[in-house]
Design a protein that fits this description.
The protein is mostly beta strands and 353 residues long. Helix content is 7%, strand content 54%. The protein has 1 helix and 31 strands. The strands form 8 sheets. The protein has a 4-stranded antiparallel β-sheet, with no helix packed on it. A 4-stranded antiparallel β-sheet has the order 5-6-7-8, with no helix packed on it. Strand 18 and strand 19 form a beta hairpin. The longest helix is centred in the N-terminal third of the chain and has 24 residues.
């Protein structure tokens, strides 16, 4: 009898344990990405399509060609250029190594103005800059190409970024300056911590509160700094396993809640609020980062092999794919990823199930 009761008790305990395990083990199924090819166009010699004022026009640059296309796959502008060019979703321009002036145009092909300043123009969305000969000074221009203000320096500029409210320039001597869009110097500081402190990459948040940099050799390091009234406080830093002197990709996400910083074969992600960092192994040098909601797409290059990495919630690598090309780009818009490769552009729609 005792043995029978003991067996019955064990059975009851086992049933309870199994029921509890099942209840606690039940979790909602994870959502999975669905990638659906939408279209592919050849931009070698495309037939140009008409467009309306309501159409969204997206920029592309492949080799010595550039232009604009719609999310539906219509090419609205296609131009070739012999030497150099700069293009954004708002404007484009062409220039050469001995540039003294250049006209610039809207994405719809209308001439906006002429920049009559010798140097190398750079278009960042709707912001216009000219880097002056010698490489240590730059001019900010208005939307007609006229000189607004100028920073004149004696040390070569080695990193540069702009946002909706601020501009940051890093220099070969390890110093970094932040300006507002009217040219007022907001802060100047040196990340330091290395034998050779050269600034290799820099990014500024939309409101200008945060600056992130990669700098130096012999203990190359990442620094995240916050502007606090007249002072600059380093709120996060990390020494990196890299001494490569090439320019580095540093970029804030759209919400300014995280910053990405890349060295050869590694991508770092710093959460601004918590101060935590994550690291992902990548193959090659990071070229571009694009964002769709909480998903990041990273384009890297090694030799003639490009890789696109898919990073969810800014720290989890969920997939990647590789292709060979002489030139490539990635771009996102709404729920679509666009991939440029040599002479073609492909569209992939992205959904979660």
């Amino acid at each position: 009898m005792k043995s029978s009761k003991k067996i019955s008790c064990n059975i009851i305990i086992a049933v309870i344990f199994c029921a509890a395990y099942i209840l606690f083990a039940i979790k909602p199924l994870q959502t999975e990405y669905q990638f659906k090819p939408e279209w592919k166009i050849d931009v070698t010699n495309p037939s140009l399509s008409s467009f309306s004022e309501e159409d969204t026009l997206l920029p592309f640059r492949l080799g010595q060609t550039l232009g604009y296309f719609t999310p539906e796959g219509k090419v609205t502008a296609f131009l070739t250029f012999p030497q150099k060019a700069s293009i954004s979703s708002d404007y484009y321009t062409f220039y050469n190594n001995n540039n003294t002036d250049c006209s610039f145009f809207t994405s719809r092909g209308q001439k906006v103005g002429k920049i009559e300043i010798p140097g190398f123009p750079m278009i960042d969305e709707s912001r216009l800059f000219v880097f002056l000969p010698g490489g240590s000074s730059f001019v900010a221009c208005d939307n007609e190409g006229k000189r607004k203000w100028e920073y004149g320096g004696a040390v070569p500029i080695t990193a540069f970024d702009s946002s909706e409210n601020a501009i940051v320039a890093g220099f070969a001597d390890g110093n970094l300056c932040e300006f507002n869009l009217e040219g007022k110097l907001l802060q100047r500081f040196a990340p330091g911590g290395s034998d050779n402190p050269v600034i290799l990459g820099a990014a500024v948040s939309k409101d200008g509160t945060y600056i992130a940099t990669i700098s130096g050799q012999n203990k190359q390091r990442f620094v995240l700094a916050k502007k606090d009234d007249a002072q600059t406080k380093i709120i996060s830093h990390e020494f990196l396993n890299s001494n490569d002197t090439s320019q580095k990709l540093v970029k804030f996400n759209k919400e300014d809640t995280a910053v990405f910083y890349a060295t050869e074969n590694e991508l770092g992600i710093a959460d601004i609020e918590s101060g935590t960092k994550s690291h992902l192994k990548i193959d090659g040098n990071a070229l571009s980062i694009q964002q769709l909601e909480n998903t990041i797409f990273l384009l890297t290059k090694k030799d003639n092999r490009y890789t696109v990495y898919i990073i969810e919630k800014f720290a989890t690598l969920t997939g990647s794919f590789t292709f060979k090309a002489d030139c490539a780009f990635i771009l996102t818009h709404k729920d679509k990823l666009f991939i440029g490769k040599d002479s073609t552009i492909s569209c992939i729609s992205i959904s979660k199930n």
